[in-house]
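Minimal example, chain plus adenosine-5'-diphosphate.
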Amino acid sequence: MGESSPEPYDDDAELHAEWARQAQEFRLEQWRKRIPPSMRTPGELDPRIVSWVNDLVRRSPNNLLMVGPVGVGKTWSCWHAADAAIAAGWDGDPTVVGAYEWKLLITPPVNEMDVRDIARSSLLVLDDPGAMRLGAWELEHMYGVIDYRWNHRLPTIITSNVPDLRAMLGERIASRLAANVTVVVLDGPDRRREGK
Ligand SMILES: Nc1ncnc2c1ncn2[C@@H]1O[C@H](COP(=O)(O)OP(=O)(O)O)[C@@H](O)[C@H]1O
Ligand SMILES: [Mg+2]
């Protein structure tokens, strides 16, 4: 039986590393296809968001609340934070849900499977949920999702024009998001108007 290579474990380790590298490259490629064209502009992530990404990659994730006026780069930062995490080897699969998508998702008849997928996502981005009127029905479903994520320590990014999550989402949702949250207040000009 002398045919096996002298260092089978080394070969295995190298093969595995190569396989992991290719899998990560593939994930990044797939992810980048999902970034909407308007959000593909290159740019720098805020250093506070970079440090949030590092915690996510190191598997000690926080929630992230980004607050700031229209056009300051909140949505862009969501996509690029997830991008940076995947590029750094994080193997999650983010789900980005805007206010209108949220509304569609929970308009009766509610597709329970979709809501469950969102609750279980390894990173959920709720982009500007306050942009739509959130009635009792919307908040009830959002509570289900956020409660699941809180129980399972799954990170959520939420963006908002106003810093007051309680006023926007109510006490039960806000207190679950606020446990373990990094708040980043973004400031600056409306980038959509800049130089256009
Ligand atoms: N850090 C950045 N670097 C380059 N472009 C950016 C950056 N942040 C935002 N943008 C661009 O500016 C525009 C407005 O940003 P957006 O994220 O939609 O703002 P908000 O969600 O805060 O209203 C978008 O077209 C986006 O691509
Ligand atoms: Mg936005």
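The first helix runs from residue 8 to 34. Residues 38-39, 41, 43-44, 68, 70-76, 191-192 surround adenosine-5'-diphosphate (ligand 1) (CB under 6 Å).
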